[in-house]
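Q: Protein A?
A:
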Amino acid sequence: MTVMRFRDEFRLFFSFVRRPSLKREVKHATPVSGWMADWWPSCKISRLLAWAAALWLINIVALGPLVLTVFEMSGATHRISVHNLPWFQALLWAPIIEEMLFRFGLRRPLLALLVVPVLIYVFLNGFAWWASSLIVCVMLMLIWSMRHARMPSGSGWNWLRTYRWSFPVVMHLSVLGFAGLHIHNYEFVDLPAWMMVVLVLPQWVTGLALCWIRVQRGIGAAILVHAFFNAGPLAVAWLALQVAGDAI
């Protein structure tokens, strides 16, 4: 099978943003199908890294100067300390929780109705050990349900047809929710609404890309790209601390 070039995927992504659709236009290059295809990335890791790199480039070159200017104007501070980098949260907890909460249901809307309330409860309770255990149980339950799923009935098909028609609205609402959640990364007293919007523009763009990856390549691929994307800034901050430490 001919592997699609990255620039062609990027072109499809822009088409998806303009006209969101559940149609899969990127063929699976790996020999997986059915329920497994949703969890196993349908491409090489290098392609997922390319998506993370493209998002880094967009956020740094196109959005970075604007966000930095507004950040300095607002007087806000970032909750993340460079001296206490949240590796576990950024590389494992956030990618799994946020992808399952905001994007798993894009292709599994009925299952999402069952698991999203649980995920919200887990998210609000943070890093407690029981919350992590609950996430594992939820994911195992989802895998079992998807493996043993049956074809929908007549009423089920009608519901799914309605969902496909409303998918563009659902997708964009999920991205807005994902972006809005990240305003919590900042500490501020009183901030105009337009400044809040600018500060979460990187998460909005990233959310759009992750939606496309979830629809085309599955939830497993979206989780990995999310983790790769988060790893970039943390790695840069860690290297800067090492260089600063050596210079002292």
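Q: Protein B?
A:
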Amino acid sequence: MKLQGIRVVDLSLFLPGPHLTMMMADHGAEVIKVEPPAGEPARRIGLRKNGEAVWFRNTHRGKKSLCLNLKDEQQKQQLLKLIDSADVFVEGFRPGAMARLGLDYATLSARNPRLVYCSISAFGQSGPKNQKPAHDLSIQADSGTVFLNEGADGEPCSPAMPVADMAASLMALSGILMALLRRRDTGQGDYLDISMQDSLVAWLPNALGPVFAEGRSPVVKRERSWGGNAMYRIYRTADGRHLTLGGSEVKFAENLFRKLGRPELASTCARPPGEQQEAIEFLQHEFSLRTLAQWTEWFEDLDVCWSPVRLLHEALDEEHLWQRRMVFEDDEGNRHLGVPIKYLHEPAQVNTGLPKLGEHNQSLLPLGQEI
């Protein structure tokens, strides 16, 4: 596997760090999760199956667990010796916390110059907000994306997805892999300052036209991506379900309106977003006349970007995801999310085993530590 032989020591908690190190474990890295005496919080959050939290199962498979109290000097010294043999170190604490523990980059890189050290924080290691505590919702609000998540009533909605968390996870993974690649030539590790806010803001290229071109925020419902385009919005069906049109190219509008008997409305969809109300109102009425199942049959073989709005359990039961192993079931009946990075050569080999808290203390620490 691609990361075989890479040792990762992970002190991060919750979602961004644990998710990125699980992806590394899926591709062969040895990931050692360092947990506080109370354990990783995700062990206790949300619904459980077969004794383990679903959240924990889908962020910690294939890892080893080391339970340490880092305020204890002897245990901290044992961790330092372990880090001496590591390739990657990941932490997700507030800036300054690692320095107070004597686990900052300057200290660790002096001992292990090849170490790639990744810090994930809410707002980054520098800047006036670097000490501000925040999780995903607050970061999205601070970054303008909650504003973009406007409901039908014009009020901002709580975002459905933890995109600040997950953007940071993917940016951190990319940065770590680039640093490891460069280390092959230089023999030198590096330090990564990954901000969840930075990572989220970097995902906004297609949303910033009004901001960068005219110095204003968008009128959300008039923008192409959020309802201003007839061919890129959500419609309600007769049974109270919904479908989406998701391709604003005029060729798709021509195919759709031709079959609906109103070919002249296709040209309306060539107008700027926010000026397509005639087509939107027609489609709202048409889609309200049939059930989602009827529309699913109607759209068969029609070259239009459309999808039903599936309930989450429907989406995760869908055959396509199972065939691609993005959802699979282990021998105990636990469902798992699969691996999105699919190589032809040396593909990931998922180890669905979960470590008990401190399970690997005896094998990883020279003197061993009891929980």
